[in-house]
């Protein structure tokens, strides 16, 4: 089996199980543990996984977020539900900002239902899907391309955002704890903050499984955002904390409306 094929199978196992065991992988592929170590090193360097003792994981850590190629294959039902709820905040004729991420990519495609729109984004998946669509004025933000986030980031992105204004920005986050939203990458944080600063209203999108977790950088205070959408109710203690802080959390229904 070629190394590239074996590494893709490791990625597939991570999508299914979130973690992989070093010994199990060596047995499964009939190779040495050192070979698996090298595979995991390659995938970690590419930003696909995080090595842990005895194996690897795609669970986010304070300084790690899994590769876009992993995240786009996870939690599709939750993403669809949150995107559908977020869509209710959009009216035809608006100027909308959408950030990087697989969750945002789902919302980006749904925005076709609300055209005509002006859409500002650094999300390469949205750019590819919406380019040339009638009724969409697409403003694609430049910058340094990040394969890990499938987005354009950096000074060029931030400078462009400082000269634009939107009616609403949709911002996703991999971690929320207390009244703060976090992210593990400083370039992503700066782009998201620039979008928040350039929009009249901001809506935060967060999977309920990410609530109660932190990451390296504080991105925003939840009280400064206009709407927060998640896919399922978090623990009662979290809901009480939000209520005491005056933060409204909208729970998107994952049930198919009939």
UniProtKB/TrEMBL annotation:
Query: Which Gene Ontology terms cover its molecular function?
Result: DNA binding
Keywords (alphabetical) are: DNA-binding, Repressor, Transcription, Transcription regulation
Pfam families recorded for this chain? Answer: DeoRC, HTH_DeoR
Q: HTH deoR-type domain: which residues?
A: 3-58
Q: Report what the protein is called.
A: DeoR/GlpR family DNA-binding transcription regulator
